[in-house]
Specification:
The structure holds two protein chains of two kinds. Chain A has no helices and eleven strands. Chain A has strands at about 5, 10-15, 20-25, 30-35, 45-50, 55, 65-70, 75-80, 85-95, 105, 110. In chain B, the strands form two sheets. In chain B, strands 2, 4, 5, 9, 10 and 11 form a six-stranded mixed beta sheet that branches. Chain B is globular and about 45 Å long. The termini of chain B are far apart. In chain B, about 35% of the residues are buried. Classes of the chains: A mainly beta, B mainly beta.
């Protein structure tokens, strides 16, 4: 029972490069989220998908795009990476939106030079 | 603006001590969550509660809705409890979770 699987674990990019962070959950959850975690700050929401076929911006969406490919998969794309996007990224899912426990992936540590 | 505040930011305890971590919030909520983040980075959900008290092993979480306050208690602390503990709330007016900045706990043998 894998839960939420996130890849890659580590990535180093040069400014201007692009990449996609992959996230998949095997719990049949409806809602999926992408967060970034920076030192001294709480987790901040980048984008979320309340259900298959829908996506919405969170608190810090600039520079990112997302795709809810199907109910299992929710990817995050950086089209042109910037040093300000150096962070740890977490994918999470819940069964029924806000009123369910959060399940997190193991995180992706991204460095943009 | 910080919708969720935690205290203390850092906490060092001797093995066996009783530990309390506090969380205050300023928004209307439908639930409050306590999360644990180990040094390896993974985050796991410990509790979700909307009233009263929940217990799991040596961990106890309480919430006072009127005072907008929650506490996480660890009894008989152990070095393996060393982690960052994060308080989060489910907003009842928006469509998001709000997270505290975490309390870093170190338990010394």
């Amino acid at each position: 029972n894998a839960g939420v699987t996130q890849t890659p674990k580590f990535q180093v990019l040069k400014t201007g490069q692009s990449m996609t962070l992959q996230c998949a959950q095997d719990m049949n959850h409806n809602s999926m989220y992408w967060y970034r975690q920076d030192p001294g700050m709480g987790l901040r929401l980048i984008y979320y998908s309340a259900s298959e076929g829908t996506t919405d911006k969170g608190e810090v969406p600039n520079g990112y795009n997302v795709s809810r490919l199907n109910k299992r998969e929710f990817s995050l794309r950086l089209e042109s990476a910037a040093p300000s996007q150096t962070s740890v990224y977490f994918c999470a899912s819940t069964d029924q939106g806000l009123n369910s426990p959060l399940h997190f992936g193991n995180g992706t540590r991204l460095t943009v030079t | 603006k910080n919708e969720v505040e935690q205290s203390p930011q850092n906490l060092t305890a001797q093995e066996g001590e009783f530990i309390t971590i506090n969380c205050s919030y300023s928004v209307g909520i439908s639930a409050l969550h306590w999360l644990q983040q180990h040094p390896g980075g993974g985050i796991v959900s410990l509790f979700m509660l909307s009233s009263g008290k929940k217990k799991h092993g040596r961990l106890i979480a309480t919430i006072n809705i009127q005072e907008k306050h929650s506490s996480l208690h660890i009894t008989a602390s152990h070095p393996r409890d060393s982690a960052v503990y994060i308080c989060a709330v489910s907003s009842n007016t928006g469509n998001q979770f709000y997270f505290g900045t975490g309390t870093s706990l170190t338990v010394i043998p």
